[in-house]
Amino acid sequence: MPRATSNSAANLERLVIRISSHMAVLKLNIIDPAWRPTLRFGIVLFLTALVPVYIWQGIKVYRTRFETLLEVLSVAGCGWQMFFRMYFYLFQQDRCRQIVQEVRDQRTVYGADRNPRMEKLFRAGTKRMLLAYRVIHLMYGTSYFFQLGPLIMPDPHKCNLPLALQLPFLPPDRNMVYYCINYAHHLLLNTIGVFILLPMDGVLIVALLNICTRIAALQLLLEELDAKLGTVQWQQTAHLDAELNRIIELHIDTKRFARVIYETYQMHFFSMFSVLCFVICMCMNVVARDPRSTLIPFGLASTGQLFVICMLGNVLYIVSDRLKDSVYGIRWYRCTVSQQKRLMFLLANAQPEIVMGAVFIPVTMTSFVTIIRAAYSYFTILY
């Protein structure tokens, strides 16, 4: 068992190191308490602050061609998401470190080092975190294939560049040097976007899956308490007070952690939902006019990002919904009156499901289906 415990802790630390290394690419490793702004961070911040300038320049250059202008607006949506969510690194450093540290401490808090079943549960949870982070890493990494657009499907209307954006005073159609500079600039913007959003969404995914694991751990503790209730005489359970109190305290701590995630990412969810809805609609508009558009992979990537976030939010909703059944399912009628009262409070606090919200809309698959259905209706009207 010590070897399994060591492997579980090592996998979790490996995940944190991977997120830190992706943050370190742009010198944004805010997980490190000793992190301080550097020159590279200043350059990244400057380029991110120029996003509105790039958008305005693209609108001016491509305003005469409607399809290309819609592509500019689609790219602008992702640029605005990167621009607005940059405050995660500027103003939410302490929250990020708190979330990562609490994920690291989860095994110790729930006693996984003393309970083989609990250790197995957290080991499986850590594997799910690693898998989810690899999937989102792959999803963001595929955005680099978009840079091959000029080779696969050149578009002279945007000077055969991957994106419908141009640097001011450096028109790419003037000479090859300006074209190469603009192409390199698109590659740089893609890299900045990936390594700004990947660790940020990675911390979010890890946190959501961690809450699910904590709820599963509470269910395991309730099962163990129920097994002990079945072996003692009726209402002779005063010696189980400590275990019941611990379950209640851990449930309170889980809800507190979920509230921290909600407060940290609420505006991020709102930004993602509003921007990605806009991007999907713009992509639908372009595809309705030109089914061979290079914007199709861009729209699929945006839909994929929205799907992953909504799916994890829905998983959390389902897992938290099961907790109240676990509370009621134990042999509460064998407990003392005092313990029954505490179980009533626990059941009442487990009734409202843990739901992440994007200000006006819950982050669930219901919201995702509603958005896709609206986008499809919009596409049908256009087509």
From TrEMBL:
Keywords, ordered alphabetically: Cell membrane, Membrane, Olfaction, Receptor, Sensory transduction, Transducer, Transmembrane, Transmembrane helix
Highest taxon listed in the record's lineage: Eukaryota
Pfam family, one: 7tm_6
Compartments (UniProt record): Cell membrane
Membrane-spanning segments: 38-56, 68-88, 131-153, 176-198, 269-288, 295-319, 354-376
GO biological process, one term: detection of chemical stimulus involved in sensory perception of smell
Main subcellular location of this protein, as a coarse class: membrane
Entry GO MF terms: odorant binding; olfactory receptor activity
InterPro entries: 7tm6_olfct_rcpt
GO CC terms, sorted: plasma membrane
Protein name: AGAP003053-PA
Record gene name: GPROR45
